[in-house]
Amino acid sequence: MRSLEGLSAFRSLEELILDNNLLGDDLVLPGLPHLHTLTLNKNQITDLEYLLDHLAEVTPSLEYLSLLGNVACPNELVNLEKDEEDYKRYRCFVLHKLPNLKFLDAQKVTRQEREEALVRGAFMKVAKPKDFRDSQYHQPQPSTADEVFVRPWGQLLAILPCPHSCLHCTKQILIYLALICLGIGNCKAADRTLKTY
User: Fold this and answer.
1) What does this protein's UniProt record list under function (predicted)?
2) Is 135 helix (H, G, I), strand (E, B) or coil?
3) What span, in angstroms and rounded, lies between the C-alpha atoms of 116 and 180?
4) Which one in 110, 158, 177, 195 has a CA-CA gap of 20 to 30 Å to 34?
């Protein structure tokens, strides 16, 4: 199955099992206000954020979601380059986008996961770099005025030690990112500016 045409006739649907199909990132569900269970295991979904935004809009009662077997669900069964940490970040991001979920991929959502999603979920959509040592601080673009400077999170945290207050650390990180986004010439200039804070 590649299309869900005709599903709009079943607006009272509560459970929908769509496992083992060819559904991809063009998946469009009609408004299903009573749907509480949706399984999309073993499909061809790669764009997690798009899917979650769509589900948040059309399935407000969703409590059980399973995405195992899709590229969008990073685990070692689908991709040997993924590990348990990748899967934890995925769960955190999903729960940030769909906070009413009670089960994700057949695992009960814990209180700790829910709390972490509130604090860190928005930042979990970025893939973990393979190796910080191989990362570059920036990639040149056609115009130097449009250069975007990137520092991996691990290195960012390394230059912003926070022995006492996590809130203070968070402020430093946000200021650091704002300085880069507002056009500070490079990461070193942002570092110098931040040290005066």
Assistant:
1) Required for melanocyte differentiation.
2) coil
3) 27
4) 110
Asked whether 175 and 156 are in contact (CB, 8 A), the reply is no
Q: Which residues of 125-137 are buried (b: 16+ CB within 10 A; e: fewer)?
A: beebeeeeeeeee
Select from 3.40.50.970, 3.40.50.300, 3.90.480.20, 3.80.10.10 the CATH code of 7-123: 3.80.10.10
Using DSSP, state whether 176 is helix, strand or coil. Answer: helix
For 82, the token pair is: 């993924």
Domain with CATH 3.80.10.10 in the chain: 7-123
The answer to whether the beta carbons of residues 94 and 120 sit under 8 Å apart is no
Distance separating alpha carbons of residues 31 and 33, to the nearest angstrom:
6
Phi, psi of 112, deg, nearest 5: -65, -45
pLDDT of residue 192: 56
Other CB atoms within 10 A of residue 161 CB? 9
Give the pair of three-digit tokens for residue 112: 């700790």
Q: Specify whether the CB–CB gap between 54 and 71 falls below 8 A.
A: no
pLDDT tens profile 109-120: 999 999 998 988
pLDDT in tens, 62-98: 999 999 999 999 876 666 667 788 889 999 999 999 9
